[in-house]
Fold:
Amino acid sequence: VRAVESFDLTVNDGELVCLLGPSGSGKSTLLRMVGGFEQPSAGSITIDGDEVIHLPPERRPTGMVFQSHALWTHMNVFRNIAFGLKLRRVPADEIRRRVDAVLELVGLSGYGKRGTNQLSGGQQQRVALARSLVLEPKILLLDEPFASLDQHLRERLREEVRDIQQRLKITTVFVTHDQEEALAMADRIVVMR
Structure:
């Protein structure tokens, strides 16, 4: 199966681009290729002019937020967020500073010692976002991050994510099948069929 065919897109620095389309149109596959979780059979992926197709996910300047949150239940909030920094051998005092700053950014100051199973769905999604942002990626990749949340919470979180994205001026690629969500968040919408 060819999941993504003849796709060419340039995303500008600081832009929020939404990939919009029905299930099976290749949106998540494309996002996973940019993040390094899928290997394309042809073509190239460049970030700031550097080819990244040969780099594993942890070496790419990207941060990915999955639909399922993908939080570790055996770790508290602080350790979930700090995990990537520890892999990069960031000093402990720098880890604390960055985790505290990103918890404040996502509205979860003081939640570091809580278990992930003590959090609501919206709070879990904020932790997943914080875990990506703490790595200071050049590109934030969001794969239908609000799909499992109720409508009211979805609307509130997408406003918060858009606000954070604009404050940080972080380039973001967002996948959704929800046209209203795309129109509410994106600078530019790419329709996939």
